[in-house]
Amino acid sequence: MTSAAPTHLAQALRQPRYALTGWPWRALAYLLTSVPLAGVLSLGLLVLLAPLVAATNAARQGRPVPLALTVFLTVGALLIVALAPLLSVPVAAFERYRLGLVDDRHLPAVPWLGLVARYTTGTAWREAAYLFFLGGLVPAVYWLFTMLVLLDAVLIVSPFLVANGDQVVLLWATPDTAVEAVPHAIVGVLLVPVLWYAAGALATAQGTVARWLLRGAPDGLALREVTRSRARLVDAYEAERRRIERDLHDGAHPRLTSLSLQIGLARLDVPQDSPAARPLAVAHEQAKGLMVLLRQIVQGIRPQSLTDLGLAGAVRELADEVTIPVEVYADLRRPVPETVETTAYFVVSEALGNVARHAEATRAEVRLTDTGTGLVIEISDDGRGGADPARGTGLTGLADRVAAAEGRLLLASPPGGPTVVRVELPCNA
C-alpha cells in the first residue's frame, strides 16, 4: 500500500519524527481550545453535582435527605436531560469544526431535522452524550494532566528554588540544597518529551471520541438500505449465464471443434517418431480441454486470486491496485463459503473502483469482519460523498449482487463525505 502523509493525529503519533512536525502544536492547540468550553459545561454540571454529593453524604451517614434537596436533584436531572439534545446542537457544530485541528478528515455537519428529531434520533443523543463527556470527564482528565505538567515544572526549577531558600516538597523527597535537587531537575527534563507525546495521546483520545460520537454516518436515518428484487435478480443472472454459455457454444465451440479436428488430422499425417508428434498431441489435448474449461468458467465465475490467496489476500491485492492508499483490516476466524467469498470480492472491487473514479478521496479503508453468523464488509473513504443509487447503475448493481446472495447493502454518503458502504452477507454453515 502506498504511504502518505498522516491525515489525523493518531497516524502522526506513530511516525518517528512526530515531535519535530507540526502535529504536536496542533494537538496542544486542540487541548487549549477545549479548556474554555469544557470549563463552562463543567460548571453547569457542578450545579447538580454539589447537591448530589451532599445528598449522598447524608444518606451514608444515616441522616434523612431533605425533601427540597431531593426535589431539586430530580428536577435538575430531568431538566439537564431534556435540554442536552438542544444545547448539544451548537456545541456539536463547533466541535466538528474544531476537530480539524487534529484530524484532516472531513466530518460533515448534521442538518437540522426538526425539534422532534432531536429527541428521537441516535445522532442527537450521541451529540448529547458528547456534551456530558466534554463537561464531565474531560475536565477531570485535564486537571490530572495539568498537575503532572506542574510537577514536572517544579522538578526542573527545583535547584533554583532551593538556592533561593524556598522549600521544595516533592512526593518522594525534600531536597535541602541545590546539588540535591539537580537529579530531580534532570528527571524533569527527561520527562518533557514524555509529556509532549502524552499531550498528543490525550488529544488523540479526545478527538477519537469526538469523531465517534459526532459523526452522522452510522445513524439509521443516514444509512439507508438499497434493496432489490431477489427473485428477479437470480432469474436475470441465470439468463445472462445461459446467454454467455450459448454464445460460447455457437461461436467458440465450432471453432474449437474445427481446431481439434485439424490437429487430429495433422497427428495422423505425422509419424509417431517425429519430433512434432508430441507437441501436436499436447495441443490436441489442450484444444479438447479448452471447451470444458470455458463451461466451468461460465458455471461459476471465480477470480483465481481468491483460490490462491483467500478473501483477505485477494482484497489486499485489489487494494494495492488502487491509485490511493487503502488500508485493509481482516478479522476472519473461519473459512468463508465460496459464494459469499466471491460476492464479497466483487463488492470490494466495485466499491474501490467507484472510490477511485468518483469520490475524489485521498484514502480508503476496507474492513472484513466475521460476526459468527455472517460476513460484514465495510468500505469507507474520505471523499466528497453524495453517492446516490438513483444516479447510476454501480450501486444498484452491487445491491443486485448482494441481494442474490441473500444479503443486504447499506449506504451512508452525505454531501461532503465520508462515504460508508456496508454489506452484510449471511454465512450458512
UniProtKB/TrEMBL annotation:
Catalysed conversion reaction: ATP + protein L-histidine = ADP + protein N-phospho-L-histidine
Cellular component, GO annotation: membrane
UniProt cross-references to SUPFAM superfamilies, sorted A to Z: ATPase domain of HSP90 chaperone/DNA topoisomerase II/histidine kinase
Transmembrane segments: 27-55, 67-89, 182-205
InterPro entries: HATPase_C_sf, HATPase_dom, Put_sensor_dom, Sensor_HK_TwoCompSys, Sig_transdc_His_kin_sub3_dim/P
Pfam families: HATPase_c (PF02518), HisKA_3 (PF07730), Sensor (PF13796)
EC number: 2.7.13.3
Protein's name in the database: histidine kinase
Top-level lineage group: Bacteria
Keyword Nuclease assigned: no
Molecular function as annotated in GO: ATP binding; phosphorelay sensor kinase activity; protein dimerization activity
Statement: the UniProt record of this protein carries the keyword Kinase: yes
Domain Histidine kinase/HSP90-like ATPase residues, every copy: 339-429
Record's keyword terms, sorted: ATP-binding, Kinase, Membrane, Nucleotide-binding, Phosphoprotein, Transferase, Transmembrane, Transmembrane helix, Two-component regulatory system
